[in-house]
From TrEMBL:
This is UPF0173 metal-dependent hydrolase OB955_09825. The keyword Hydrolase applies. Residues 7-203 form the Metallo-beta-lactamase domain. NCBIfam families: PRK00685.1. The keyword Hydrolase applies. GO terms for molecular function: hydrolase activity. InterPro entries: Metallo-B-lactamas, RibonucZ/Hydroxyglut_hydro, UPF0173, UPF0173_UPF0282_UlaG_hydrolase.
Amino acid sequence: MQLTWHGHSTWSVTVGETDLLIDPFFDNPKTDLEPSDVDTPDYVLLTHGHADHIADAGAFSEATLVATPELVSYCQEEFGYEDAVGGMGMNIGGTVECGDAYVTMHRADHTNGIMTEYDGSAGMPAGFVISDTEPSEVANDEDSTTFYHAGDTGLMTEMIDVIASFLEPDAAALPIGDHFTMGPWQAAIAIDWLDVDHAFPMHYDTFPPIEQDPEEFAEKVSDAGSDADVHVLEGDESFELSS
């Protein structure tokens, strides 16, 4: 599984022959790419409807959309998407097969209004657990490689009670910017709760209120008792995740 961070919360994930793009927003200081520089993925995954997560979604409307039904409806009207997973999107707790990937939607503690002329709700904000095998009851499945994109969230007990216990991610990308999401301290606790091997900070340094030193996050992960490797990626840098 290849993970590429394009700054903010924008990630490209390749599972087998399937390309997924999460929260396309290329107007951030960590990337030199324009949407036109990025090949259209097979699937676009949207965690919620805030502008810094869907601003460039329209550039990839030929992809299949993975989002809540409310956000799918908005994107079909606003950006011209025709295809959505299941024809109508998905919702919290569901798992859908996306080519070679299995995508499970989990809630995020955040808000989800679309603050445009539309001025409506996009349903529950979410995160995604992406795996190369179908989630199962097999504990510590060594044949599975799993990545958790937490979306915009605060610290929540579901990270330890549900995501770590049953979905068992190997790696997690968490917001550390504070102000709108978790800051470094709470994100470090989340990494400990999730019991992942690899941690990636995201959603920082894009705007003045969320300027952070990611090395501080790395220190706090260690202080929280986690032995996860913290990878502070440069914009458009990739990481190969294996089981």
